[in-house]
Amino acid sequence: MAGTANPSSYYQSGRVTREVQHKEHLFHLYMFQHTENLPNANQKVIARPNPPHDFGLTIAIDWALRDGLGPNAKNVARAQGMALGSSIDGPKWLMCHNIVFTDERFKGSTLRVLGNIEEEDRGVWSIVGGTGEFSYAQGDFTYKYTEKPVNGIYTREVHIRVLCPTFVKLTPPNKVVSRHS
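Structure tokens predicted for Dirigent protein (181 residues):
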């Protein structure tokens, strides 16, 4: 048939005979949230429908993740995404964001995070993917407040556990010659 592309020209497959190995990454960080009314705010309300319990309230976030609490703590990453008021019955939030690494070691790599805030002081979110060093990531993101929020500043201690598969290099198959070329 004229004009039909040879499937082997755009696709390769190979047999993987080894078990998939995983690399584990463990992080201990601190996440800093500064609400919209502060001079150094790192979040912004983008929709405020005003039903009960902030249902439908949508906030864009760009929270800092650092390697410590003190003034010399190093910026390691940003939590960039959104928080959505997701319950009519009480204050509950759907969190959907990317952890975008900015330090030298993981610069450009990301983790995809999805979860809910149901208890304000602690929780667990899922890591559902990633890019770069964290391709195909799975894991969890646990947090707890280091202290009660003060004047619109929330500080969370964060533990991230990520498993990423490491793939063996595939040997390209022999070129298939089509009889219809």
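The chain has one domain: 19-166.
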